[in-house]
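Example 9 (inverse folding). The structure is encoded as follows.
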């Protein structure tokens, strides 16, 4: 089978961005978007209609990804370190490397039996909420997503909702690398947003790093479906003795170091990036 031209082009773009150390940029051609205004989003599903849509979206979302698992289009081989998640009570941030539309579902599958009936909230980019890629509109808007916004007034609403979720003891998934790099195995340097939120709300970060291995299944694009191992790592807590700026940098450094160690231990190779 010939390999997809589109996926091959994504790999070329990823290689170029790695050389240029532009770690947070997307390689996909993102859809056009518009500013997300405060009245456009109900972060906590306070409206009855949105609570109904939330239930429907989660049912259809689970069916969609469970079908992918049944067809071996998404393969979760192993979950390691669930005790690190179980050990943390109360609100928490979960970070994960971002390389697939299915990586958030892999995180959910790893955690769901230990969520005590709660859902996993996901921080997403503005455009994925205002103009989501087909056929994911229902999921992007109603599967417990927390869209960011270019509008200050909407971000004030986001921050209040995030604090309320932490107070309620919820779990929020954030991709600190920001952009999705398809099937990219290495950990990337991170943006500080996840750690800023953790420090402001005095909650821990639980790093998750997903490693990949080629399966014996070819996908429709001519690439081997990846088998995921979900590594749940020990929690990182804000250091109350540090300043806000130093505390978030400390958490980000520790998260990155934990990812790098997991990468090197699993693949048995040192982490090296290509250089231009």
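The amino acid assigned to each position is listed next.
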């Amino acid at each position: 089978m010939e390999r997809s031209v589109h996926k091959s082009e994504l790999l070329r773009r990823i290689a170029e961005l790695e050389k240029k150390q532009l770690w947070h940029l997307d390689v996909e051609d993102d859809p056009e978007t518009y500013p997300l205004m405060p009245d456009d989003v109900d972060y906590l599903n306070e409206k009855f209609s949105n609570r109904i849509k939330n239930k429907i979206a989660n049912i259809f979302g689970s069916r969609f990804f469970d079908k992918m698992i049944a067809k071996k289009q998404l393969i979760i081989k192993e979950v390691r370190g669930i005790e690190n998640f179980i050990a943390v009570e109360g609100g928490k941030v979960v970070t994960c490397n971002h390389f697939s539309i299915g990586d958030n579902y892999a995180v959910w599958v790893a955690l769901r039996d230990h969520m005590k009936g709660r859902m996993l909230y996901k921080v997403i980019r503005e455009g994925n909420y205002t103009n989501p890629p087909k056929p994911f509109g229902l999921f992007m808007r109603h599967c417990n997503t927390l869209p960011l916004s270019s509008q200050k007034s909407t971000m004030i609403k986001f921050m209040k909702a995030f604090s309320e979720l932490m107070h309620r003891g919820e779990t929020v998934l954030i991709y600190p690398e920001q952009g999705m790099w398809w099937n990219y195995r290495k950990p990337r340097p991170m943006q500080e947003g996840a750690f800023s939120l953790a420090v402001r709300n005095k909650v821990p970060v639980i790093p998750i790093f997903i490693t990949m291995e080629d399966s014996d299944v070819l996908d429709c694009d001519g690439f081997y479906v990846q088998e995921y191992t979900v590594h749940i790592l020990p929690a990182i807590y804000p250091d109350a003795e540090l300043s806000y700026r130093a505390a978030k940098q400390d958490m980000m450094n520790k998260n990155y170091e934990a990812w790098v160690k997991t990468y090197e231990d699993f693949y048995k190779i040192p982490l090296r990036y290509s250089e231009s």
